[in-house]
Specification:
The protein is of the alpha/beta class. The chain has helices at residues 16-29, 44-55, 63-87, 98-108, 113-124, 139-149, 161-177, 191-214, and strands at 5-10, 34-38, 91-95, 131-136, 182-186. Strands 2-3-1-4-5 form a five-stranded parallel sheet, with helices on both faces. The structure holds adenosine-5'-triphosphate and magnesium ion (MG).
């Protein structure tokens, strides 16, 4: 069976890293070759861009510059990691991907979706996630988890509540627009419940892939 590109999306602190580990385990148990990666990052140059994007508190970054840096990191990630891995039949699990760009740089920063679309088409060519798990939780819930985890807030975690609300709204709007691809999980539930829902989503997707493979 061919691999697939799975992205995990949602606000900071909603549980992406936690659940990506679970997805990787789930797939490996079924014999899939899995590669876990993240955005911005996933390559040497991408991780350097991540440092700038998340931690360059002292340097102002214009919104359009931020958007272009995100796509610069994505271009490298696609060429160096994602496209070769998919070609080799791997399952690529990506902690944030294109929907985060629309949510943060579109919703959060207010860049027009049409402008993001132009860059998306040029950068991604045909590559899109086959399945996206959106961990949706009220802004306060995600923020409380981030606080609990500790550490200094990054450039996005440090944003005001209206920025975070806008991020959530765009994520939800994209889920409504792409219901086949984006599966929304209620991430404010206890871990075991989120996991049970995730299990169902994965099982359904796995069966679909197997059926497609057999035909
Ligand atoms: N359903 C849940 N119930 C309670 N706590 C949770 C749940 N999901 C995750 N957590 C906890 O919340 C914290 C944040 O989770 P995690 O690091 O997975 O989020 P994240 O989405 O990867 O955040 P970031 O975007 O900052 O990387 C962790 O301490 C994790 O154990
Ligand atoms: Mg994380």
């Amino acid at each position: 069976m061919n691999g697939a590109l799975l992205s995990v999306e949602g606000a900071d602190g909603c549980g992406k890293s936690t659940h990506i580990g679970f997805i990787a385990q789930w797939l490996r148990k079924r014999g899939a070759a899995v590669l876990c990666t993240r955005e911005p990052g996933g390559t040497a140059v991408g991780e350097s861009l991540r440092q700038i994007l998340l931690h360059a508190a002292a340097t102002p970054i214009a919104d359009r510059c931020e958007l272009l840096l995100m796509f610069a990191a994505r271009a490298q990630h696609l060429d160096e990691v994602i496209v070769p891995a998919l070609a080799a039949g791997k399952w690529v699990l990506c902690d944030r991907f294109i929907d985060a760009t629309y949510a943060y740089q579109g919703g959060g920063r207010g860049i027009a979706a049409q402008d993001i679309e132009i860059l998306e088409q040029w950068t991604h060519r045909a590559v899109q996630p086959d399945l996206t798990v959106l961990l949706d939780a009220p802004v306060e819930v995600a923020a409380a988890r981030t606080r609990q985890r500790g550490g200094k807030p990054d450039r996005f975690e440090g944003q005001q509540a209206d920025f975070k609300q806008a991020v959530r709204r765009v994520y939800q709007a994209r889920a409504a627009r792409f219901p086949q691809r984006i599966r929304v999980l209620d991430a404010k539930q206890p871990m075991a419940q989120v996991r049970a829902e995730l299990n169902t989503v994965l099982a359904t997707f796995w069966q679909q892939r197997q059926r497609a493979h057999e035909h």
